[in-house]
Amino acid sequence: MSETTQHYLIFETAGGFCGIAWNDIGITRFQLPTKSADATERLMLRRLPNARPGAPTPDVTEAVAAVKRYFAGEEIDFSGVKLDLSEQDDFFRQIYAAARQVAWGHTTTYGALAKQLGAGPEAARDVGQAMAKNPVALIIPCHRVLAAGGKIGGFSAPGGSTAKTRMLELEGVQVAPPKPVQQSLNF
Q1: How far apart are alpha carbons 180 and 71 in whole angstroms?
Q2: Is 17 helix (H, G, I), strand (E, B) or coil?
Q3: What is the pTM assigned to this prediction?
Q4: N or C: fewer beta carbons within 10 Å in the chain?
Q5: Per-residue pLDDT averaged across 14-36, rounded?
Q6: Based on the number of CB atoms within 10 Å of its own CB, is 51 exposed (0-12), middle (13-18) or buried (19 or more)?
Q7: What is the annotated signal peptide range for this record (predicted)?
Q8: Are 109 and 147 in contact (CB under 8 A)?
């Protein structure tokens, strides 16, 4: 992140209270929903202790409106939202750029993202670590990145894998294995 002043805003969505932080370059942090504004603010300030509440810029206002529409169930594409990821290393920025291309209602895996970046299967762990450290979850849709075999995998946001599952279901992604077509014989 830049040395410029960090500002943040806590706002309510249909999914709970979210937080967003920004500087003069772009959005630096996004906090997925919690049940209270106070909890969201505590999480934001834990990661950005010098941030101050501020009036959002037009770009931030637009991002907030998009987040509200997302949690209301509207298909939203966050790939154009301007971010400041300058504090991330180069490989993580490459991972985040690739993850930003995973569209609403689609998923990929840690391994597939690693392969897309020209890395071997061992880099799947690096992709997983990048997703766990994603400073702008939802805007970089880490919830759309699954473990091998389409398993839900981990999720470091409030609510853990349950929150990840809810977000995917909001997008129409079936995360549970399909029910068998044949009836059980009940032996």
Answers
A1: 31
A2: strand
A3: 0.88
A4: C
A5: 96
A6: buried
A7: none
A8: yes
Active-site positions?
Answer: 142
90-171: what fold? Arc Repressor Mutant, subunit A (1.10.10)
Q: How many CA atoms lie within 13 Å of 186's alpha carbon, on the beta-carbon side?
A: 1
Look up residue 109 and give its DSSP letter.
Answer: E
DSSP 30-98: EEEEES-HHHHHHHHHHH-TT-EE-PPPHHHHHHHHHHHHHHTT-----TTS-B--TTS-HHHHHHHHH
Tokens for 25? 């370059």
Q: Which residues contact 37 (CB under 8 A, 6 or more apart)?
A: 10, 12, 17
Tokens of 36: 């209270």
Cβ-count burial of 120 within 10 angstroms (0-12 exposed, 13-18 middle, 19+ buried)? exposed
Q: Which residue has the tokens 């939202």?
A: 81
Structure tokens at 111: 């391994």
Cα gap 93→76, rounded to integer Å = 22
* pLDDT, mean over the chain: 90
CB neighbours (10 Å) of residue 25? 14
Ordered by start, the domain boundaries in the chain are 7-72, 90-171
